[in-house]
Design brief:
This protein has helices at about 20-25, 40-65, 75-85, 85-95. With about 100 residues, it is an all-alpha fold. The termini are far apart.
């Protein structure tokens, strides 16, 4: 053939025109530290759905417990407000009778 030189061997092992960059496959080796492995999009989506659902469940549980809580009596702020002005309480009692 016109373009062939004697002694040249191509990638298929037959005599002919040799193309060096096709003879050896190109391999790129990268090394990663274990801490640089990223989470996949599907795993991130699953984690976001799970944490969002858990947050909503805890909010609903908190409000359920808060609404159904048993009152123990007057709070400290209500006791302080009633103890500051006993004369006003007496005045109201006499005005009602």
């Amino acid at each position: 053939m016109a373009g062939e030189r004697e002694g040249d061997v191509n990638a298929s092992g037959r005599p002919g025109l040799s193309i060096p960059h096709l003879q050896a496959p190109l391999t790129i080796q990268t090394t990663r530290a274990p801490s640089s492995i990223m989470i996949s999009d599907d795993d991130l989506y699953t984690l976001a759905i799970f944490l969002g659902s858990l947050a909503m469940l805890l909010i609903v549980l908190y409000h359920f417990l808060e609404v159904n809580a048993i009152d123990d009596g007057p709070t400290q702020s209500e006791e302080k407000a009633s103890s500051k002005s006993p004369s006003q309480a007496q005045a109201r009692a006499t005005a009602q009778s």
